[in-house]
Amino acid sequence: MYSNEDYKFIEENAPCYIYDETNIIEKCKELKNNILGFDFLYSIKTNPYNKIVKSIAEQGFGADASSTNEVMISSKCGVSKDDIYYSSPGKTEIDIETVLDKCIIIADSITEIELINKISKKHNQKVKIGIRINPDFTMDDDSAKSSKFGIDIEDMSSVFKMLSMCDYVSVVGIHIHIKSQVLDFEKLGHYYEKCFFIALNLNKSKYINIEFINFGSGLGVAYDNLRENPLNLKELSKLTQKIAFTNSNTLKSRLLIESGRFIVCKSGNYYVKIVDIKVSRGKKYLIVKNGLNGFMRPIISNLIENITCGVELEGQEPL
Fold first, then answer.
1. Is there a cis peptide before residue 135, judged by omega within 30 degrees of 0?
2. Are strands 274-280 and 104-107 parallel, antiparallel or unpaired?
3. Tens digits of residue pLDDT in 191-206
4. Rounded to whole angstroms, what are the CA distances from 191 to 43, 116, 156, 178, 282?
5. 102 within 8 A of 125, measured Cβ to Cβ
6. Rounded distance between C-alpha atoms, residue 163 and residue 130, angstroms
7. CATH assignment, 4-258
8. What is this structure's pTM?
9. Which of 99, 203, 260, 285 has the fewest CB atoms within 10 Å distance of its CB?
10. What residues does each domain of the chain span?
């Protein structure tokens, strides 16, 4: 519940977003208390507001950054360089120069490995990096799909060849992410297990020493409580515990899961001012200031569902 002071602020400042820090902290604790043996990265893209980032960082979360700006936000909000993982396709030379000493860079392609090595050599600085893998399975089956993200697992021999010529990078981890918004704990747990075994196999190469595995996210949020069941973290934890146990006896690497929208999705409200009330043929309309552009997801998701007749397109990310 909001205080009178809160309501006064809303009246004076709407349209505005109001976030509940208590709820955000509770969601952080929910992840940490259920999925043991793993560390978590807050997906900055879900809400880059610095006070939210700082609050989540204070709960011991690292940062999943998808741009140089998100790396800088994370750094300014107190996240250490060893806890910021910068993963996105299409990093430019300027991008890499900007963040070289501020985060762990996840190379998204063989070309990017070469570029990071070139810039590291320029600074006479050997850097630890990760590589993003496009696996030969999906969340639903064992079929391989093309992707604009990462390096196809079957192309790892080309990666090893490139690494043999790179003296200024050291691959110490992998990143895999193939789908967001997964509510089925069994699918998610088995996906994490498959990712772990990819890391086990890659660690056999002399060119890779697995110090971390970033499993991506997948942690789903139920938007429609009538049609969707929330992700069962307690059941998921039974599957992740097995991975953590195997890891403690094998790789002893850092296990990372990205939060996705899990933490902030239901932690805030969007307030708008009613500027007019109209009645058209018996139906009342409330005309608000800044409706669509401040709350686009419901509009876009309904539009896409109508266009595609509810069929998920290949490569489509859930909204």
1. no
2. unpaired
3. 999 999 999 999 999 9
4. 19, 29, 20, 9, 52
5. no
6. 12
7. 3.20.20.10
8. 0.91
9. 285
10. 4-258, 273-308
